[in-house]
Amino acid sequence: EGLEEVQLFVLEVLRLHPPVRLFFGRPQVEMKLCSDGKEYRVPKGMKVVGNIHMAQRDGTIFKCPHSFDIDRYASDDVKSALLYSHGPHTSSATTTDHQCPGKDIGMLLFKWFTSFVVLN
Questions:
Q1: I want to staple 98 with a disulfide (CB 3.0 to 4.6 A). Which of 59, 70, 86, 87 is the partner?
Q2: Mean pLDDT to the nearest integer, 81-103
């Protein structure tokens, strides 16, 4: 149970204070983005920027988005909404995306460090 609480704490800290706030990219194919009930066409190759800091405070996804809630990630639905620099936190790095291959090791170190600080 203690390790699960550390995991939930770390996820909430990352939601409020993401290590990467902005990311840039160019879609490989034309795509549509939906935001605030509107749909936007993004042509292939157009440079786009994503703001993780603002996305993690979206009130339509996160209840009370500006408050710290350690139980927020008890639901798997909300876990999949936590964004990392190139996709959902729950996705694994592959050779075809730009997800950080050290993300899982970083999370393990973050949890270890948090546990060490709390216990000492």
A1: 86
A2: 69
